[in-house]
Write the structure tokens for this entry.
Amino acid sequence: MVPFDEVKYRNFMDTVVRSWLKEHVSGSHFSGYQGKPIQYYLAVHPDAKAVIVMVHGFCEFFAKFHEPAYNFYEQGYSICFIEQRGHGRSWRAVPELDRVDVTDFTEYVEDLKALLDQIVLPQTKGQKHFLYAHSMGGAVGALFLERHPEYFDAAVLTSPMLKMTFGNTPLWQVKALSGISRLLRWNDRQMPGGQDFDGKPDFEHSAALSRARYDYQFEPRIDPKSQNRYTMNSGTFRWVRAAMKATEELQAHAASIQIPLLICQAGHDAFVDNEGQNQLASAARNARLVLFPEAKHEIYNSFGQTLADYYDTLLTFYSQQL
């Protein structure tokens, strides 16, 4: 396991984890929804207990999840990570690389289905399949579980975006602006409160508690070798409309999720409305919600006892489903 403290973390990531990435993780594209090229990363464990499919959040990419991917692998799981359309090295709908755009969350859901059909299932026959989905990925994951219940044996949604918040902008105002944006065809325009990526770190206003983890994950965003593929920083009005539609739909059909479901909730989450998580936990048939009271939105970017408790909760849950 990666050390939970700040001091030892960076050296471990730069030596042990980077070596693991080089030796055991392969990356390529598959054909996603409507044939769009979607990036994925795969590490097949030689004696896998099961496979964990990882789905990231809004404006995220694989390097933000090197630590949990490595930890899952070291605990005996194969891992497969998808960089969702509009993110990382996957296909983009708009030319601005720091702006995420999608017409409907069905595109995300069907990309995930294509990943499972083309990559995961052929290489992991006979194994159980677990989902690990964060934030926006949690919304995608919940929709996937409702529409395609046969694929996963259990799921973890961590700080899932099941109800949206827009900081200081009231939700009614966002809805009004979204309606206006449709009429005026502001589809590609930047979402309310969105900002272009300026290359300046801002740990204090981030979703992370761990400065060491924040710094490690910010570096690819400004690395010239990355060719600006990791600069995602806001979305379009079209994305906002799609996201609001998706969260309303997934709550309406939450009772159809029957597999074991763990919802991890951050006590200091400024990026999603936790009430949506409470609603899903009450409606889904086999769900459990665990609160991490000291954590910010990115619980996986905590440190110390909070991070230790987080991984203990995840790994215990997965082991109980084997």
Observations:
- Residues 6-320 form a domain with the Rossmann fold fold (CATH 3.40.50.1820).
- The chain has a mean pLDDT of 96.
